[in-house]
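Record type: monomer structure entry
Structure origin: computed from sequence
Chain ID: A
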Amino acid sequence: MSQLKQFNQDSGQWEPVIVGAHGPTGPTGPQGGQGPTGADSTVTGPTGATGPQGPQGTFGGATFEYMYDADTTVPSSKTSGHLSFNALATTMYISITDYSATNVRTFLQTIDDSSSAVKGSFKLTAVSNPAEYAYFSIVGNHIEYADYFEVPVSFVSSSEVTPPGDTLSYITFARTGDIGDKGPTGPTGATGPSVTGPTGAPSNVTGPTGPAGVTGPSVTGPTGVQGATGVTGPQGSQGVQGVQGNAGPTGPQGGVGPTGATGPSVTGPSVTGPTGTKGPTGPTGATGAGIQGATGPTGTAGSQGVQGPTGPQGVQGIQGTAGATGPTGPSVTGPTGPASTVTGPTGPGVTGPTGPVSYHYSFNQLATSYTLALSDDGQIVEISSSSDTNLYVPDEATVGFTTGAQITVISTGTGFVTLTPANGNVTIQGVPGLRIRTRWASATLIKRPGTNSWIAVGDLMA
């Protein structure tokens, strides 16, 4: 090992260092004060491992201890610390004090304060065996009596073995929250395709004929001017009898008179009426009078001869030619007839198909037994009573319901509503019976083919 040396400035030499023996350790000095806290780290440490899942929690809420009675009759009062249900488990009767005699009236008044349809729920658990339980919903508002509450309920579920009657049980209430605010209106859906139905087949029914147009006035054309009389020729001498001349030609027939005006086409409302029939042809104009031809000249008289013997009859002279035919009389058109004032008949309109029926039911709200009326057809009859009532279906001879008539009946009270024939002529078929099962349940009566025959469908019981 090399020796430790140090530099001596006086001699300018490196000289060995003589190390003395190690002295004893000095006492520990006092602890220094705590240093300042370091700045926060900017680096996030790693996430720790996820812990194991905790055990499932129990049904939460306000819990009270009660004796669960097996008795299902409607009580007039309730023993302190006891609760029970009706036979259908649709109504609970619960004392205002629990099993320890604590008054819980104020709490029970709040169990149906929610604005939701289902006001809340509760769990009934056997104290001796928590595995035995039953869940119920609170479906309406309670009725408060002197020493108990009547609460409308609906069974939800239960363990395989439910708490037996006459068992000390815990009842735990959970109130439903109020109905939330209405959400914003959703966007308008896309417009459905516009579909034009096929064109109907052409009508094979001929529309009625319109009325005949007014006949134009009958106008006779004026008679043609008579030709001038030919000049009389000088008296000719008596010649021999001439042969019969040919007959002169017949003068030309006068022109045809004008055709009467066509009756106007009158348009009927909505549908154009058919064209009126053609007016009759005007009468034929009179035949123009032809100018009679001039008479041929008479031969000159012979000189008086000697009276000889009477000669033979002379030959008849030739007849002169016929004069020229006179001009045809002018053709005159009569004035147009006045416009028709008769409106053509309305064409056959086609009625479109009946649009869909829009249903909007009316309520007939009652609190006692009731006999149906014709005005109830297609409507809703609501009966709200704490006592049992009857909804009577009348004899068809009294109230004439027709086949297919329908009436919906709703029970909103705590009493039972029974659908009942008004007499022995009326038959109502319903399964399993004709009693509406519970409060807030309903059934529909339907008139069947056949006299006084009805069927009831809905939430019914025997």
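Annotation 1: The longest helix spans residues 105-108.
Annotation 2: Residues 221 and 332 are 6 Å apart (CA to CA).
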